[in-house]
Amino acid sequence: MADRQIRYTLPDPVAATDERERAPGTWMSHRDAQTSVMMQVPRVGAFVRALLPVALTDGSTLTFGVWVAIDPDHLQQVVAIWDTPTYLQMALDGRLANAVPPWGMLTAPVHLRVRERRHTPYCDSSTDPTLSKVLDLAWPPSVVGT
After folding, report:
1. Which residue from 11, 39, 58, 100 lies 20 to 30 Å from 26 (Cα-Cα)?
2. In whole angstroms, what is the distance from residue 47 CA to residue 27 CA?
3. CA 61 to chain centre
């Protein structure tokens, strides 16, 4: 089975605003929300992209490209190391900023770790019982609509 990927364009809190990513003062790491890996939107928050891999019982993986809300005070630290060797040691805590069907999990706490230099951080663990199960168990493809 081939692995599948679903990538969210915006964090849900940003998508819920009238101006979305076009709000005055918005900063994005790249030219637009689709290609950015970090963003900060005034009065909404700071966000980084992360990978949320979901193991499926057929041996494949469905990976969600989610946004994670982080402490705005940490964003500049993340920006400073993103393209450096230090990035490989980065670990970060935040909250899921996308509701992931069928579980939801919006605002679930999540710990991020970098696993590969050329990838955004991975959702590694969570104190949220549902997100912890999503990360630790294999799911029937029918549960996630594949």
Report:
1. 100
2. 10
3. 16
pLDDT over 70 percentage in the chain = 98
22 vs 65: CA distance, rounded Å: 21
Burial (Cβ within 10 Å: 0-12, 13-18, ≥19) of residue 113: middle
For 23, the token pair is 């709000």
pLDDT greater than 70 at residue 24: yes
> Could you write out the three-class secondary structure of 87-142?
HHHCEEEEEECCCECCCECCCCEEEEECCCCCCCCEEEECCCHHHHHHHHCCECCC
Tens-digit pLDDT profile for residues 55-87: 999 999 999 999 999 999 999 999 999 999 999
Round to whole Å and give the CA distance between 10 and 1.
28
Q: Who contacts 135 (Cβ-Cβ below 8 Å, separation ≥6)?
A: 52, 53, 123, 124, 125, 126
What's the rounded Cα separation, in Å, for the pair 104 and 46?
20
User: Rounded distance, CA 96 to CA 48, Å?
Assistant: 10
